[in-house]
Design a protein that fits this description.
Elements lengths: L1 H14 L9 H8 L9 E7 L17 H4 L4 E3 L6 E3 L3 H6 L3 E7 L6 H10 L15 H8 L10 E4 L4 E2 L2 E2 L13 E3 L18 H10 L2 H12 L2 H19 L1 H6 L7 H7 L3 H15 L3 E6 L19 H25 L6 E6 L3 E2 L4 E4 L13 E4 L2 E2 L3 E7 L6 E3 L1 E2 L6 E3 L4 H12 L7 E3 L5 E3 L15
Parallel strand pairs: 1-9, 1-10, 4-16, 5-8, 5-9
Antiparallel strand pairs: 2-3, 4-15, 6-7, 10-15, 11-14, 12-13, 17-18, 19-20
Helix pairs in contact: 1-9, 5-14, 8-9, 12-13
Amino acid sequence: MKCMNRRKFLRVGLAGFGSLSLPGLMRMRAQAAQPQSGGRTAVILVWLRGGGSHLDTYDPKPEASTDYRGPFSPIATQTPGLFVSELLPRHAALSSKFAVLRSMAHTGGGHPAGSLQLLSGDPDAIDKLKPVYPDFMTVAHYLRAGGGRKLPNYVGVNPVIRYDSFTIAGPGYLGPAYEPFAVLGDPSAPQFEVPNIGLKDGQQSERLRERISLRKQLDVVRRAVGRTDVMQAMDSYETQAIDLLTSTEAARAFDLNLEPAALRDRYGRNQWGQQCLMARRLVEAGVDVVTTTFDGPLCGRVANWDDHAVNHHVFDALKFRAPVFDQAVTALIEDLYDRGLDQRVLVVVTGEFGRTPRISYVASSGGGVASAPVGTVQPGRDHWPNANSMIWAGGGIQTSQIIGNTDRRGEEAVSRRVGPQDFLATIYRHLGIDFEKVAIPDFSGRPIPIVNGGKPIAELGAAV
């Protein structure tokens, strides 16, 4: 099975070589390139698939009426004026190391549309089956590829890819060559292993190099294309694919067993905690973009944050997942600071939107973790793109602050409203990508800006 996985990896990794002839590829990569040293910036996205309730996490409304505010009390944090839900005591103790943005808003009311708006800047409010525009992770991967590195530019540790039958993130018109290297499974499991990384047998590695027929394939393409810059890019991808299979450096970066037991405990011996620990190891080793999705059994019965009453008892679900979420996120942030990575690594924690401030009551569709038996009426919160809270940490930003506010019931952003284009501009600024000038041709050859009118969130600028 592992052999089949490796063959599949090589086949998929090389499938998109023919699409690397986009005009200006090497020039745009040069614009986005940063030193290959410890100064190279990176991003970790912690994705709450389904969208978490802002009122019950980072934007509590204790003075709202009972049909809005929920059962959880706010608690003070280290940041003056910032209160968070009592479900997040570790966040409260660590608030000096992150900023809370409470005023993200867009028009994507469905999971696909909300995800595509935030991650790729797609302006469409209608759900679509797959992305048209590349997400920011893919764009960064595309522009910062190459350089003879031993690790992928973009890794998804439980990647952001799908919501049910919809693809909610991806390369769009950049093509499958820029999809993430996907790490699947539960990193906390005793027998967990990442396939396609670091063949342990030196002779096997050498045989692999000898038997790969890439050179003949590339020679055919050379005769057909005859462009030096494209050929150099293709040579680079060939080298990266083989290096990933044979590199002990790559194998070490993915090996959580090299971490002290106490540190693994600090993150939490569970899937989300160990996903975050792997994300930290990867950016420290030189990966540019890491995404990690918080979903699955740790969310409750329906395995996501989509806390409609038909799915979950919203408050039981939040209580169930909050301790793991609180521990994993704060351990990641604190560890980045402890290791001196807080200037170059930016962490963003968000889902596609918030949840309805007004609590709804509907019969459960099934019993299980955080959901009453079928037919039992229980509370829930529905989709709410009008207001979403997210946290930002690291990246040399100004922390210990609140950016934006919602009204007294948490329904609308009433100050410092920002949108997906501002979100993207902020991330690109950190990555050193000139978002105001870079445009990438779509399938028809039309140049599409990677940001359309957005500006970096000024309050998240470099700390003084």
